[in-house]
User: Which sequence fits this backbone?
């Protein structure tokens, strides 16, 4: 039954990829005032994914504007090369892709030794077994619900049983590792991913494309708490 529970402390992580880049600080303040716990920062290098986004300088520039947990999602090759730069810029949580690390354990330890939370992400087609030997070290597992690279895509429903399976493994091992989901999250599917076992919901377009950003955060939280 544990894998069917609705998490009462569901947390939201608005992704600034969908924010107004000419008014980032303003948009960050709006989601913070609406009660979002994390600020999700998508870093893309044009190699691991086709798109190029932002680097440590933007994280550093935003840091004085917010007390939210800065959640840096590195969609880059050889992320270990840049982890220290992002931590120095103000990241509280650094997530790397298992697919991008030749030595995943080493990169996870590198993040932890810098004194911040460590996350590992899996693309939709990557099996959970890729995490087996590092799972107890992780603060967070990020299960991609789209293929990374762009905002505004549709959630891939085949990931739902994967979330359930991950929840079961975490519960069986009595770990406190949190499950984050990212990609295509909306009011229509928020309840489903939470019912599957997600703790933290990333959302870009569902929040920043709404005219009323604050209202969108609140609506998404309500939807996440609805049993589906
Ligand atoms: C996808 C990114 C996501 C994306 C989410 O590669 O990692 O964080 O910005 O955006 P939406 O919610 O619009 O799918
Ligand atoms: Zn992301």
Assistant:
């Amino acid at each position: 039954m544990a894998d069917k529970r609705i998490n009462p402390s569901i947390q939201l992580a608005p992704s600034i990829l969908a924010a107004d880049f000419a008014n980032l600080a303003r948009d960050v303040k709006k989601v913070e005032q609406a009660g979002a716990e994390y600020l999700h920062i998508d870093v893309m290098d044009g190699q691991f994914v086709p798109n190029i986004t932002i680097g440590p300088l933007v994280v550093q520039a935003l840091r004085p504007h917010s007390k939210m947990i800065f959640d840096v999602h590195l969609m880059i090759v050889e992320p270990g090369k840049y982890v220290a730069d992002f931590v120095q810029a103000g990241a509280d949580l650094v997530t790397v892709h298992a697919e991008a690390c030749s030595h995943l354990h080493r990169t996870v330890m590198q993040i932890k030794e810098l004194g911040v939370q460590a996350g590992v992400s899996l693309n939709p087609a990557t099996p959970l077994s890729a995490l087996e030997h590092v799972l107890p070290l992780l603060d967070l597992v990020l299960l991609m619900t789209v293929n990374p690279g762009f905002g505004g895509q549709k959630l891939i429903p085949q990931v739902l049983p994967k979330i359930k399976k991950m929840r079961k493994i975490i519960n069986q091992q009595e770990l406190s590792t949190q499950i984050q989901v990212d990609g295509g999250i909306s009011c229509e599917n928020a309840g489903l991913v939470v019912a599957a076992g997600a703790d933290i919901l990333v959302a870009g377009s569902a929040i920043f494309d709404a005219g009323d950003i604050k209202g969108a955060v609140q609506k998404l939280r309500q939807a996440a708490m609805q049993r589906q």
